[in-house]
Amino acid sequence: MKLLKAGPSPFVRKVLVTLHETDQIGDVDMVDVTASPVAPDPALIAANPVGKIPALVRPDGPALYDSRVICRFLDHRAQSGLYPDSRIWDTLTLEATADGIMDAAVLIIYEERFRPREQVSMDWIEGQWGKVARALDALETRWLSHLAGPLDMGQIAVACALGYLDFRHDARKWRTGRDGLARWHEAFCTRPSMVATDPMA
Ligand code: GSH
């Protein structure tokens, strides 16, 4: 299998952490592509018509995307229990919350990177950050007990989302007022899968 990836994408990191946690990292070749909303990479589009990373190219079936599908496939392939039946809807909702943080955080970067300076909308950027801040507050107030439980995909996704905030939006200081989430993240980041995929390493 080949994983199409680029730079410090938090969505790619979800897949990489899952590969490490499920002991499948050796089954996948890494292929770097360019991920750009305005100049999509032909190699990427051939695998994913939407032109986003990650995409997983398989020898025995169509390419898989997006990160949620790939992670679920990898969990199924290894029978690793990252989507436990007993709390499946919570796990999927937590993963969706983390992906929502990543989407908004990435779109802020794109607004600054791909638009001419005079067209950059601060209202739009703050609107995106509002999504991040509300999701972080929900994690702090409603999800800490789930985060403290056995490893599942929701936890991996949240850890990757928070790692991306550290990497790209450090100045926003997401930890302020969210002590429980900060403590959980610090502990989770000691896992070898997180250390091996740290974008700041
Ligand atoms: N929902 C997708 C997933 O979970 O995989 C989101 C993936 C995504 O937004 N990836 C970004 C990308 O490929 C890089 S972090 N952007 C290129 C584009 O928007 O065209």
From TrEMBL:
Keywords recorded for this protein, A-Z: Transferase
GO molecular-function term, one example from the UniProt record: transferase activity
Gene3D superfamilies for this protein: 1.20.1050.10, Glutaredoxin
Annotated GST N-terminal domain residues: 1-82
InterPro entries named in the record: Glutathione-S-Trfase_C_sf, Glutathione_S-Trfase_N, Thioredoxin-like_sf
CDD domains (alphabetical): GST_C_6, GST_N_3
PROSITE patterns: GST_NTER
UniProt name for this protein: Glutathione S-transferase, N-terminal domain
